[in-house]
User: Which sequence fits this backbone?
């Protein structure tokens, strides 16, 4: 679902996705768009305000397209599930792995259920924010090395760490990467999905209201 | 003190921090290592009630580390330490292999505080049961004569039954301040009983009653009642 005239439309059709074109006003009047799986939102003036308004009505996966990568923090802070500029591969990865990346980036209720007290949750979020980028870098290095066994181990470590926050998109994406590495399958797409979900998670944690 | 000493072998810094904080919250003493080799070495040097062992670790896996620890225990005729595997839910194969390697059970990752509490609660009972019931030489040193000691113990047990009943009803009615007051009375008295087992039960009760919100206290009250009964039988065999 995207407004007409964007290059992404022909791309999506060439990948056999069904497109429903609509205006933002029309989309908002029929929110959530139950016949679609994801809303693709191009960068326009006040797009973020629109997204915030829509998500307040009902949560639904929204992916920013044709959006400068440098703006991604503001995009995640507004509650969008992902953000892409012109990267075709990235868009393809996200759409192919839709079930992995949609959903709330962080669920305080799940984290509290696992860890038991708010004080432990807060301390762990601090450790996570500090450690996750380093662990992700380890994954990228393993990926570049082409050593699948090493990548599977690194993904297992990453997945084990993020699992403490509950079954959130980043955790599902890390598990998918681990499985792909173990099977010797293509890992570029799962790694991209993990990068996106992790960026969104870190942004959400950074902007969350402290208890 | 029935402090449960735990060796945590986990290579993930986030997993390490979570489990360590949960265990410390349960009053455990925790040592953390990052791989199977360090785990085996530390298990042979320390005296741990529980070893939580991640199965997939670098340098030496949790399974190999367990095999080494079990071999070492057998050579020295030592009682086997409780070793619990930390595995991801889906890894059925890891679970089977962990039992084959000599582990006592497993916890699924992410480790949940409720599962950990249950495990530590069971261990704490076993640890408390191993604590001495009464340190007569130290008690005599403080009270100077058998008569004074005997009077002090009789006075304590005479009052203890009443306070215990009050504690049970305060806990059942959810009167938190009354619960804390009764627990405080026991803790204060237990210091002069020279019974590490009773003192441990009091301290556990004191720790739990200090939590907000207060968790259910019945199991801890039962433990205290059991320890008091054992001590009374030991020091006042005639029942007074």
Assistant:
């Amino acid at each position: 679902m995207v407004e007409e005239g964007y290059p992404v439309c022909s791309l999506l059709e060439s990948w056999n996705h069904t497109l429903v074109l609509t205006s933002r006003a029309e989309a908002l009047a029929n929110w959530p768009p139950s016949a679609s799986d994801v809303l693709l939102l191009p960068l326009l003036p006040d797009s973020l305000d629109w997204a915030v308004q829509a998500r307040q009505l009902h949560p639904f996966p929204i992916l920013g397209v044709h959006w400068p990568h440098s703006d991604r923090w503001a995009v995640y802070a507004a509650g969008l599930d992902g953000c892409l500029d012109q990267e075709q591969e990235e868009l393809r990865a996200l759409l192919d792995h839709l079930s992995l990346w949609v959903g709330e980036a962080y669920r305080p209720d799940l984290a509290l259920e696992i860890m038991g007290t708010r004080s432990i949750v807060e301390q762990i979020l601090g450790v996570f924010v500090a450690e996750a980028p380093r662990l992700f870098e380890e994954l990228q290095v393993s990926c570049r090395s082409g050593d699948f066994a090493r990548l599977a181990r690194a993904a297992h470590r990453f997945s084990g760490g993020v699992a403490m926050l509950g079954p959130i998109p980043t955790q599902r994406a890390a598990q998918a990467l681990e499985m792909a590495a173990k099977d010797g399958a293509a890992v570029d797409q799962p790694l991209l999905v993990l990068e996106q979900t992790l960026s969104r998670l870190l942004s959400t944690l950074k902007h969350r209201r402290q208890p | 003190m029935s402090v449960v000493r735990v060796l945590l072998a986990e290579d993930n810094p986030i997993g390490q921090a979570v489990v360590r904080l949960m265990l410390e919250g349960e009053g455990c003493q925790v040592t953390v290592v990052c791989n199977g080799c360090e785990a085996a070495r530390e298990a042979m040097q320390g005296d741990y009630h529980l070893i939580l062992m991640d199965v997939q670790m670098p340098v030496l896996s949790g399974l190999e580390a367990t095999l080494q620890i079990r071999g070492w225990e057998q050579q020295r005729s030592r009682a086997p330490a409780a070793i619990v595997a930390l595995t991801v839910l889906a890894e059925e194969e890891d679970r089977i292999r962990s039992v084959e390697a000599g582990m006592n059970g497993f916890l699924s990752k992410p480790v949940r505080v409720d599962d950990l509490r249950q495990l530590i609660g069971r261990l704490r009972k076993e640890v408390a049961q191993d604590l001495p019931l009464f340190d007569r030489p130290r008690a005599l040193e403080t009270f100077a004569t058998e008569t004074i000691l005997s009077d002090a113990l009789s006075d304590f047990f005479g009052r203890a039954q009443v306070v215990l009943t009050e504690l049970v009803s305060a806990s059942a009615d959810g009167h938190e301040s009354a619960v804390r007051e009764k627990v405080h009375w026991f803790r204060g008295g237990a210091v002069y009983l020279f019974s590490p087992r009773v003192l441990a039960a009091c301290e556990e009760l004191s720790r739990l009653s200090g939590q907000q919100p207060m968790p259910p206290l019945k199991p801890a009250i039962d433990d205290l009642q059991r320890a008091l009964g054992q001590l009374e039988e030991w020091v006042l065999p005639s029942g007074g």
